[in-house]
Amino acid sequence: MNDNLHELLFAFIEHMKVRNYAPATRDSYTRNIGQLLDYLSDQGVTDVRRVTRDILTAYIAALADLRDKIGRPNTVATIAIKIRAVKRFFEYLESSNHVLMNPAAHIKEPKKEKRLPRVVLTEEEARKILDQPNLGTLTGIRDRTILEVFY
After folding, report:
1. CB 147 within 8 Å of CB 129
2. How far apart are CA 102 and CA 88, in angstroms?
3. Residue 65 burial (CB < 10 Å; 0-12/13-18/19+)?
């Protein structure tokens, strides 16, 4: 990473301190922006004003191919965190007039994976819950209907 990029990262870290970002967020963003800046250096980009949406798109595509310390591919959540850091960095660069236009403005974070619940009620447990409302009252009928919809 060249000195100019290093200075911008340092300025961004100071900006995050002034804005009271949580220490864990600052550390995460610092790591993730450092990774971006290393990628830019590898691509021969030494000036952030030369970063385009295409370069950032290629970086995001490269994130999917990267592996963590254990050798597992990055998850969608990890990639989303890395993209969020890039977006905040370029928002800072734009607001501090280091770049004229924010190349990360239109980049979207990937949607997080929807997972099914890990614990599912057994049929007997569901029956016990559904049998609780008193069906002799309007409130009981309402409650039973709500429980059935939830189930």
Report:
1. yes
2. 10
3. exposed
